Amino acid sequence: VEFQRILLRVQELLSPAEVLDLTLLCSDLLKQDLGSVTAGRDLFSLLQNRGLLTSYDPSLLIELLQIIKRSSLVRDLRLKMHPQLPGTRISPYRRLLYELQENMSSDDLKNFKFLLIETLPRKKLQQDMTMLQLFLEMEKINFLDADNLDNLEKLIGDICPWLNKLISQFKAEHGAGVIAQETKLRSNSGSLDLSVTIEAVQKLEEYNMKGDWRGFCLIINNYKFSCPNLKDRHGTDKDEKRLVGVFQWLGFETQTVQDCNRTQMLQELEQLRTRDHSQADCVVCCVLTHGYNGGIHGVDGSKVALRELMGPLSGHCCPLLSQKPKLFFIQACQGTKHQEVVFLHSDGLDDSSSINVGISCDAAVPSNSIPSHADFLMALATVPLYTSYRDKVKGTWFIQSLCDSLLQMVPRGVDLLSILTHVNNEVSKKTDPYGTKKQIPQPGFTLRKRVVFPVPKQPPTF
């Protein structure tokens, strides 16, 4: 409620023109018709519904107020950036257009419209609009975009030539208008030349993500173990609950199974293989269990190699998933070395020589744990020779950090590998009560494109 009061206060202190500027600055983030936005609360509601603006992370609001030079509101309302989240979401291109508007007079706007008489419909030009609105109309007919500033540069040159320096600076910093360049790389021996073509594009190619349904998400959660040297995994229910909530929010159809042995786990993967993936964008499999060097344990102590988990979903075995991302998230230790901890449990073998709860150490992951087939991601909770940790009350460091990061960064349009890098950073900061235990996850992949989940239309409900 307090955050809503702050947003209402911001609305009261902004002029209608400023609200319009904020709305147009957010056009790339919202990607919808913003004609219905007539007040600050309308814009704030849209941003909140997309998960882009929360009491936990008001950084977008702070950034917007700073862009329109209302930083005093940030100070007066005591808004603070979240210290662990990046603060820039408005693209440099939108900032450039706003800066151009701020340096143009009403007469400049009239002259701009006059030059566009043969380009835009006269009905549009007769409407009362700001320069940002005019730029948006130019974008609608593909007369202007971030990679094509030539038309804008010519118009600005006729009316306000001194502003072309802003466009030139943008091009120099962000590569607008550059198609490609070649760089020669020479080996240390001097005997080999490599010609590398560098495409100057704003982002790499992305996997296709269409519609509201993302695909299937299988979650295998092993809690109760019959094998005497594998302890029950207290706290794993917290991980399962978070994973279900997050992946349903992302548009996946989730299925959870508990306490599987080797045969049952492989059967679940086989059933997942045979499902109809024709309309799916990708597939996800999360496994929460104990592990060993290069694989995971069933509840009876049986072993499953990581490559066996991925095999059924390869393009050869499941053609409907060919060229689609196959994403695995594995919470399990991969070794037998232990250390004493308090309220933390390992996902590895128990060691009778340990007085308290043992923490296993991950062993090296074999090179064939990621198959040669394309489009796989295998995100492991830990790197070779290090342990992974599970809090009995909160769940595992890796899965909880993964869920938190997806919730915070998917609405920002951040790709999955960048999110996992953020997860690495967050997990690396965690430690046990004595400050002696550390962990770092390890993602491995044969992905060919960026995995960018569409921003969910509804905020998370869990």
UniProtKB/TrEMBL annotation:
Cell compartments where the protein resides: Cytoplasm; Nucleus
Coiled-coil intervals, chain numbering: none
EC number: 3.4.22.61
InterPro entries according to UniProt: Caspase-like_dom_sf, Caspase_cys_AS, Caspase_his_AS, DEATH-like_dom_sf, DED_dom, Pept_C14_caspase, Pept_C14_p10, Pept_C14_p20
Domain spans labelled Caspase family p20: 213-337
SMART domains, A to Z: CASc (SM00115), DED (SM00031)
Protein name from the UniProt record: Caspase-8
Species whose genome carries this gene: Electrophorus voltai
